[in-house]
Design goal:
This protein is α/β, with parallel strands linked by helices. 29% of the residues lie in helices and 25% in strands.
C-alpha cells in the first residue's frame, strides 16, 4: 500500500513539496480465527474467520473509519490490533515496533501509547469505583505520580472532557450515558496516548448526545495530536469525523479510500449498497435516488463463500466471482478495492455474463 502524499508551502514561495505522511500503525495480513468445537471431547470441527487477511495503514494524526455490518470483524480487528485478543497471522507495526514480537513486560511498557474507548459506557466502568479511582487507575499502574499530583491530573482530565472536578468522588451510576462516556474518554487519554481505538463510542448514546461526544473527540484530537481508529456502523457520523474509511465485509476489507472519494464515488458494490441505505435529509432527493437492496443475510464466517465473499449478495456477480478471489488493488489514487468489476468499464452488462 502506497503512502498518501500531502503538500507543504515553503517559506520562499516555491512550489509545494510533496512528502509522505508518517505511518503510525501498519497492519499486514492480519488474521483472527476462532475454533469451532463440537462433541463430548470438544474436538475442533472448523474455524470462524472473524478477521482474514486484513491490510491497511493508519497515518499519524488522522482518523481512519472502519465500517461494515454487524459481524463483519470490525471490533475484533481493533482488539487484535491492541493485542487485547490473540493474533493468528500477519503483522502489526506500531511506530516501528513489531507488537506481535513483544513479551508481557515490553507490551506493558508500550500500553500507555495505545488506548481504547469502549462501546458501552455502562459496562466499561466499575460501579464500585469512584470516578477518581477509575481515571486514576492507569496513572497508578503506569506512572510514579504522588497522590497529590495524581489528584491534580484527574481534575485536569475531568475539566478537559467537560466535567467538573468535584465529580471525582461520585460513582458511575450518578451520571448520564454521555457523562459516563466522557469519563471513559478521560481514562483513555490519562497516559497521553498517541493512538486510540474507538470501538463504536457513540452507539449506546442518545442521538442528542452523540454529536457532543464526537465533537469532544475531535477537539481532543486537535489539542493532543491523537490518532484514531473509529469503528462504527453509522456512515453519516463516520463521514463527519474520518479522514479515510475502510469498509469490512465478512472479515475482509473490501474498500479503502479518502472519505470524500468513498462517499462520492464508491467503487465496491457493497459500499454502494451501504451508501444507498443512509437517509438523505432532502425529501426530493431521497425520493429520486436509486436504492441498492441486498438480498439475503450475511453468510456465516465459519463457512464463507468461495471466491469473492460478497458474491452471494452482489447484484453484478458472475461465475468468475465464484472461483477467483478478487485482488485488493489500488484502482484510483488512494482508493483501494477488492472487486473484479469495480471499474465501471469492466462490469458485465445485462446481456453478458450471468449472475450466480
Amino acid at each position: 500500500m502506497t503512502n498518501t502524499l500531502d503538500t507543504t508551502q515553503p517559506a520562499d514561495g516555491a512550489e509545494p513539496a510533496a512528502r509522505p505522511k508518517e505511518v503510525l500503525v501498519k497492519i499486514r495480513g492480519l488474521k483472527r480465527h476462532f475454533p469451532v468445537r463440537a462433541g463430548l471431547i470438544k474436538r475442533q470441527v472448523g474455524v470462524v474467520k472473524a478477521v482474514d487477511d486484513v491490510t491497511f495503514d493508519i497515518y499519524r494524526g488522522e482518523t481512519l473509519g472502519l465500517v461494515g455490518e454487524s459481524g463483519s470483524g470490525k471490533t475484533t480487528t481493533g482488539r487484535v490490533l491492541l493485542r487485547l485478543d490473540k493474533c493468528d497471522g500477519g503483522s502489526i507495526d506500531f511506530d516501528g515496533t513489531d507488537l506481535l514480537s513483544l513479551g508481557t513486560s515490553d507490551l506493558r511498557d508500550i500500553r500507555p501509547r495505545m488506548q481504547t474507548i469502549f462501546q458501552d459506557p455502562h459496562a466499561c466502568l466499575n460501579p464500585r469505583m469512584t470516578v477518581a479511582s477509575i481515571i486514576g487507575e492507569p496513572l497508578r499502574e503506569h506512572t510514579k505520580l504522588l497522590s497529590a499530583e495524581r489528584e491534580e491530573r484527574i481534575h485536569d482530565l475531568l475539566k478537559l472532557v467537560g466535567l467538573a472536578p468535584d465529580h471525582a468522588n461520585r460513582y458511575p451510576h450518578e451520571f448520564s450515558g454521555g457523562q459516563r462516556q466522557r469519563i471513559g474518554i478521560a481514562r483513555a487519554i490519562a497516559l497521553n496516548p498517541e493512538f486510540i481505538v474507538c470501538d463504536e463510542p457513540i452507539a449506546a448514546l442518545d442521538v442528542s448526545i452523540q454529536a457532543q461526544v464526537v465533537n469532544l473527540m475531535l477537539e481532543l484530537q486537535e489539542e493532543l495530536g491523537l490518532t484514531y481508529l473509529f469503528i462504527s456502523h453509522d456512515l453519516s457520523m463516520v463521514r463527519h469525523i474520518a479522514d479515510r474509511v475502510a469498509v469490512m465485509y465478512l472479515g475482509k476489507v473490501v474498500e479503502l479510500a479518502n472519505v470524500d472519494d468513498l462517499y462520492d464515488r464508491p467503487l465496491h458494490p457493497y459500499t454502494q449498497a451501504l451508501q444507498s441505505a443512509v437517509p438523505v435529509p432532502d425529501p426530493i432527493l431521497e425520493r429520486s435516488r436509486e436504492r441498492v437492496i441486498l438480498e439475503g443475510d450475511i453468510p456465516s464466517p465459519s463457512n464463507p463463500p468461495s471466491g469473492c465473499r460478497f458474491r452471494t449478495r452482489c447484484p453484478i456477480a458472475t461465475e468468475k466471482c465464484e472461483s477467483v478471489e478478487p485482488e485488493f488493488r489500488e484502482l484510483r489514487a488512494g482508493q483501494w478495492v477488492a472487486c473484479h468489476y469495480a471499474d465501471p468499464d469492466q462490469q458485465p452488462n445485462a446481456g453478458g455474463e450471468h449472475h450466480v
